[in-house]
Amino acid sequence: MRIRSIRARLTLWYTSLLTVTFLLLGGTAYGLLVYNLSHDSDSALKGVAQILAQQTPRGSTTFFRPDIDDVFRRFFGFSPFDRYFEMRDPFGRRDPRWPRPSSGKLPLSPAALKNASDGRPTFETIEGMGQYPVRVLTFPIVRAGRVVNLIQVGMSLESMYMTRHRFLLIMAAMLPLSLLLAGGGGWILAHRALKPVDRMTDAARRISAEHLAERLGETGTQDELDRLAKTLNEMLGRLDAAFSQIRQFSADASHELQTPLTILKGELEVALRSPRSPDEYQRILKSALEEIDRIAHLVEGLLLLARADAGVLRMDRQPVDLAQLVEEVYGQTKVLADTHALTLDLGLVEPISIQGDYERLRRLLLNLVDNGIKYTPTGGHVTLSVQRDGGWVSLQVSDTGIGLSGEDQERIFQRFYRAVEARSHGESGAGLGLCIARSIAEAHGGRIEVESTTGQGSTFTVLLPLNS
Ligand code: ADP
Question: Does CATH number 3.30.450 belong to domain 6-163?
Answer without folding.
Answer: yes
